[in-house]
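I had to read the description of the data format several times before I understood it. In essence, backbone conformation is discretised, so a fold becomes a row of integers matching the chain in length. I therefore recommend that a typical entry be quoted early in the introduction. For illustration, here is how one protein appears when written out as sequence plus structure tokens.

***
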Amino acid sequence: MPSSLERHNLRRIPVTIDGKTYLARDGQTILDVARENAIRIPTLCYTQALKPLGACRMCMVEVAGTPTPVTACTAKAADGMAITTKSAFLERLRRETLKMILLRHPLNCSACEINGACDLQDLVHQYDISHQDMHTYNVPPLAFGPLHPLRPLRGGVRRAERSGLHQLPGPRRDDPYRAGDADRDVQARVHLLR
């Protein structure tokens, strides 16, 4: 007699992927359902040996009823879910996501030891990304707040006043609203997709 866990995993639910209905196990991710049915969704960070993270954002899919795309490796399939894995918007989103990943990645594939066996390299070719594509971001400079002095040193003498650094604009290190690299990357991506 099967245990309650086994009975739970035997329950099949219908999901629609790109207009076709498939049966998924209850609790299965969208990516797993797609792979079982030979539907290719690109991934970079997914591996069966680890818990899914959704960090690379390459496996984004559209789910009917959700306002934004979701990561297929982390989203669980639900009864009657309608999923789109291929659309012009998703292709553009994946291409821009890949370009953002490449901004912090050396583009010297010929010198790499895994040249020819690299998922990132395969996706770059699939989405036809070239060196010229990497220079298309026109990110405006961020406007920083008012001038500020640095912290006082021993004896009340301000290091900023001694060095002249108090004249330089910029965010304070302890400012919780300071924009970082990730914020600028996201702002650039959203700006380009609209």
